[in-house]
Design brief:
The complex is a heterodimer of chains A (127) and B (214). In chain A, helix 3 links the parallel strand 3 and strand 4. By secondary structure, chain A is of the alpha/beta class. Chain B has a single domain, classed as Chemotaxis protein chec, CATH 3.40.1550. Chain B is 45% helix and 25% strand. In chain B, strands 1, 2, 3, 4, 5, 6, 7 and 8 form an eight-stranded antiparallel beta sheet that branches. In chain B, strand 3 and strand 4 form a beta hairpin. In chain B, helix 1 runs antiparallel to helix 4 and helix 3 packs across helix 4. The C terminus of chain B is likely disordered. Chains A and B meet through helix 1 of A and helix 1, helix 4 and helix 6 of B.
Chain lengths: 127, 214
């Protein structure tokens, strides 16, 4: 099954790192990149996004606020907050929002684990 | 003049790498103070030392205290944890615990600041070094007090008009009303070296090697 992954990060470099890792791990999956929360919400409301990887520290709406917005319309979409900010409060809030947490600097192993879990959850939802 | 001007992508890369370093450092600080540490988005500028010194005098607070560490390696510079002097004791108290008397906190101030700075700045620099796959040597922390100009040696050996690469992020601990900056300051020769390393890093991502980057 092929899925479409949304990458949200204000840093182009960070998007490049995530996109590059994603292409290595799941070369057949589609990806779409956005640089802020507004663009991300527009992409999600388009209905074609299956999974989202969201930076935490962004200008304007931060990653956790964005996850909260996505949850209003997509309560079960697999979403991970991606950040080097490994403070308990950030990880705890991500959990409350039913989102994963993948730490930066990003490793293929951590991203692969999240994507595998996400693929399994999506399979359950749409058998 | 070759100020080693940065392309948009280089600037973006430096901000992101600094952000990773500072976010790790903030996580270390959170463990020490037991309260969430909030961070701004990072700012990367090539400015004069004099301009950098004014940026840290927020709301015209000129009595500052900084823990600083020099770093050396493929590029060299200084990392500083800066906050208003009036908040120094509050920061120390938040680390050593509220049960200590004011006298104890004052006694512990130098040592606690040096240790805090050491953990935070090392966390920041080590993350940056790891991301770039380079080794950096770090000095022991020292404490500087004064206005922005004295922190950044605007007078003295370096000229205030000299351009530096200035990366900074402000942090605050809302429950303690403590706010400050984590700043990295690099001279121009280092900027050229850093540009090369950052470009290596960027092209490594673009080549999509089978290993992993970042």
């Amino acid at each position: 099954m092929q899925y479409k992954v949304l990458i949200v990060d204000d840093s182009k470099l960070a998007r490049m790192v995530m996109a590059s890792a994603l292409r290595r791990i799941r070369p057949d999956w589609a990806l779409v990149e956005t640089a802020n929360a507004d663009e991300a919400l527009a992409a999600v409301s388009g209905g074609t996004v299956d999974i989202a990887l969201i930076d935490f520290n962004m200008p304007g709406v931060d990653g956790l606020e964005l996850v909260a917005s996505i949850r209003k319309t997509h309560p079960s979409m697999p979403v991970a907050v991606v950040s080097a900010n490994v403070q308990n409060e950030i990880i705890g809030r991500a959990r409350e929002l039913n989102a994963g947490f993948v730490s930066k600097p990003l490793t293929d192993e951590a991203l692969a684990a999240f994507l595998s879990g996400a693929a399994l959850r999506l399979k359950k939802v749409t058998p | 003049m070759d100020t080693g001007e940065l392309t948009d992508l280089e600037q973006d890369a430096l901000a992101e790498i600094a952000n990773m370093g500072v976010s790790r450092a903030a996580s270390n600080l959170r463990q020490m103070v037991g309260e969430q540490v909030f961070l701004s988005v990072p700012s990367v500028k090539i400015v004069t030392r004099e301009a950098a010194s004014r940026l840290v005098e927020r709301e015209n607070v000129t009595k500052l205290v900084a823990v600083q560490q020099s770093f050396e390696g493929p590029f060299a510079g200084r990392a500083l944890l800066i906050f208003p002097e009036a908040q120094s004791l509050e920061l120390v108290r938040s680390i050593v615990g509220d049960q200590h008397s004011l006298e104890d906190v004052i006694d512990l101030e130098q040592e606690a600041l040096a240790e805090t700075g050491n953990i935070i700045l090392n966390g920041c620099l080590a993350t940056i070094a790891n991301v770039l796959h380079r080794t950096m040597r770090m000095s022991l922390p020292s404490i500087v007090r004064g206005d922005g100009a004295s922190l950044f040696e605007v007078q003295g050996t370096a000229s205030g008009g000299q351009f530096v690469l200035f990366l900074f992020i402000d942090f605050n601990i809302k429950k303690r009303d403590i706010h400050g900056f984590i700043a990295l300051l690099m001279d121009l020769p280092s900027i050229a070296a850093l540009k090369t390393i950052v470009n290596d890093f960027i092209s490594a991502i673009e080549r999509q090697p089978s290993g992993h980057v970042g």
